[in-house]
Structures are given as C-alpha cells and as structure tokens.
Amino acid sequence: MSQPTELSIKVYTVSLGCPKNRVDTERLLGTLGSAMVPVESALEADLTLINTCGFIQPAVEESVNTILEAIQDIAEAANSADKKPLLAVAGCLVSRYGQDLKDEIPEVDLWLNTEEIELWPAMAATALAAPMDSDTPRRLSTSPSHAYLKISEGCSHNCRFCTIPSIRGAHKSWSVDFLVREAEKLVREVPEIIVVGQDSTAYGSDLDSGEDIRQLVEGLSKLSGLEWLRIMYLYPAGLTENLLAFLKDIGKPFLPYFDIPLQHAHPDVLSGMGRPFARNPEKVIDRVRKHFPDAALRTTFIVGYPGETDEHFQHLMAFAKKTRFHHLGVFPYWPEDGTPAAAMDNQVPDEVKQFRRDALMELQGDISEEILGGYVGETLPVLIEKPSPEWPGLYIGRAWFQAPEVDGVTYVSAPPEAELEPGTIVDVEIEKADTYDLSGLV
Asked: What is the pLDDT of residues 154-167, one digit of tens each?
C-alpha cells in the first residue's frame, strides 16, 4: 500500500511597506506549519500572498502594481497547471479601500483586511483547504541577523496628515507574556530583536494589567541568546526622564539607538500637524543625550506640509544642523484623501517640496559623513547580514548604530578562510567612511 503524500503548499510572498507588515506576514506563514514551502515567484506558487501598504499615494501605487503583476503571472501559471493558483491580498490597502478595491480587481481570491487580522490564519487555511498549525513559530523572512517584534497594533494619536488610525484602528497592545514568548522563539534563530509599533512608548497604555514598555524591555532583556535589543518608533512625548533612566540602568542588550519620529522642528508646523509633542523638540533631544551622551539618533521629517514657509524650513535646517542626527529620512508631504491636512489651505507646490527635501538631505549627507568619519581607526562589533555578491571575502554587516533596511551598512573584508556566518558578531577595524556606509577589516 502506498504511503499518503505529505501536504506541501508552495507559497510566494511579497510584504510591502513597514516592518510591522512583515511581522503580520511572518505570523500568518507560520500557521501554515511545515506544509509551507517558500518559492521565488508567483509562477511557481500554490498561494501568492501580497501584504500591501496604503499609507501614502506612492505606496498605494506600488501595491496595486504588485497585485496586477501577480495576476499576470498567476494567469500564465494557471494555463499550465491542473488548478489555478490562489491569490491573497492583505493589509492596509485592503482596509483603506475596501469594496472599491474588490470591485476593481475581481481576480483576487482572498482579501484580508487588518480589522480581521487575528482571523487571517483560519481564512487562509480554509481557502487552501489546509490545516492550520497555531503552535508553529513565525516564518522569518529577514536575514539571519535580526527579527522584528511587533508589540502593538494601530494608533490613538490624531496627526492630521496620517491615515494609520483610520486604517489600523486605535492603539492595541499585546501582553508582555505573549511578546516575550514570541521573542524567546525568535532568539533561537537571530541575535537581534527590533521592537516595532506605531508608537512604542505608548505600549501598554490600553492594558488593564498596567504593563508598559519598561516591563516589556525588562522581560526581553533577560532572554538567553539576545545580543542586541533595538527599539524603533519612540515618540518624543513618551521619552520621559523615568523611561530614559530605566533604559540606562537596563544596559545591554539594549542599544542606545533612539528612533524618534519628530516630523518637524518648528512649533507652528508641529501644531498644524496635530503632533502629540508640539513644543520645542530640542528638549527631548537634550533629555536623551543627558542619559545617553553617545546615543545614535534617527528621525524623519516631512517637508512641504501645508503652510510651511521658507522661515519654517530654515528653522528645520538649523535644527538638523545643530542636532546632528546619525540618520535622517526626509519625505515630501503627500495630501492623503480623508485626512484633515489634505483639505487645508496654503498647500505647498510639489517643486518646492522636492527642493526642500533635496536641500535637507544634502545637509544630512555632510553630517552623516562627518559622524561616520569619527569611527575610522576604531574597532567596532559588527553583526554580519550576508556575504556580498560582488566578490568572495566581502560581507555586508551592521554596527550597533545601523538599523536594517533604513540605515547604512558596514562592509567587512575577511580572509577567505574566515567564512563569516550571517547572524554572528565580529570585531571589525574601521578603515573607511563614505556618506552613509563604513568599511573595515576583520
């Protein structure tokens, strides 16, 4: 008698947008258990899963184009297969446009909106006629160096330019116990955990247990095998003296890397944005540096917000020059349908937005090169991401002040016999600094 064939589901995934989306994708894939076999294209897949971003117009366009490309590939694959591959589309685009999107793209077999995120595994299993394995860890899609830990869903702030609350709903935290158990499984595979949430400092504010970011960090810091703990999206209003003093006392594995989404520096613009911290942002920078003099600071700015004048922009330029961020992202303002800012008077012309963005990034390029130049001659611990495809003996890694995907990298040259393994930390003598990257030798 022949033995039954073990179920195999070939899955092709595309996760667009932020790391929080990536975590949603990885959690869903984990529930498919050992049956899930990753493949490299929709042409090979039984299931194509596209987790979309719908935050701003360029992200919407990217998501729609990705769906349409997948539809073409699936149609080609269906012509040579016994059954049509399944196309599932998930995430923010689905939640933002709902039925209109379904009407426009009827080829999609399964729609997964963020309001039903806890039902995604059951919905996918039903569509695939496959069992669901709730005990299987997440299927990581990052390099062997790191994993993201999504600690909350949604946002309860009312920034006038932002679509997130309308897409993802109000802030909702998962319990410390749930998150520490998930992280415990992750550190069996990776040495770095990166905490993400729309506002990480707001973690626990909705929990009756009274848990907050301090209890979570304390639990995570005790995990065996965790080398680096990085926290992203630290809103300035939540970076209190008490929290900073706590983080200082925790020490390793916490990294003194502060990702603070300020969005602007002028109080008039911040007030117009409806930011939860609309006072002088220098105060929070000074507060962080009082506790962590050598902290690496990252932020994002929006230029060309309605009503932003040349004077406001020059104020922002002066702030960036004085503060000297390690890393800075600058985005032209996009008037998103349904947001209060889109209906404001004094919209800034697109060419002015782009000019301001370019000017600020030029300034930041000089600052970044100066900061990185200060590491030349030092020996730094570097977390290896992967071998470089350019030539043998060259690896791509990150120093402690370089977060994956958003910051620069450190190129590491090693003798052929070294064979550096991704996910390991090695001491690197820094020999060269470029605008955003470092290079060094093992």
From this structure: 999 989 999 999 88
May I ask the CATH architecture of the domain 146-373?
Alpha-Beta Horseshoe (3.80)
Residue 210 has, within 13 A of its CA and on its CB side, a CA count of 0
Q: 153 forms bridges with which residues in the sheet?
A: 172
Query: How many Cβ atoms are within 10 Å of 409's Cβ, its own excluded?
Result: 19
Q: In whole angstroms, give the CA distance from residue 9 to residue 129.
A: 10
- Quote the pLDDT of residue 3: 41
Q: What residue spans in the chain does CATH classification 2.40.50.140 cover? A: 379-441
Cβ neighbours for 265, distance < 8 A, ≥ 6 positions apart: 281, 282, 301, 315, 316, 319, 320
Distance CA 196, CA 202 (A): 11
Residues of the chain with CATH 3.40.50.12160: 9-128
Domain 9-128: which CATH class? alpha beta
Helix (H, G, I), strand (E, B) or coil at 213: helix
Instruction: Dump pLDDT digits (tens) for 266-305.
Output: 999 999 999 877 678 999 999 999 999 999 999 999 999 9
Q: What is the three-state SS of 273-305?
A: HCCCCCCCCHHHHHHHHHHCCCCEEEEEEEECC
State the residue for tokens 């200060």.
Answer: 374
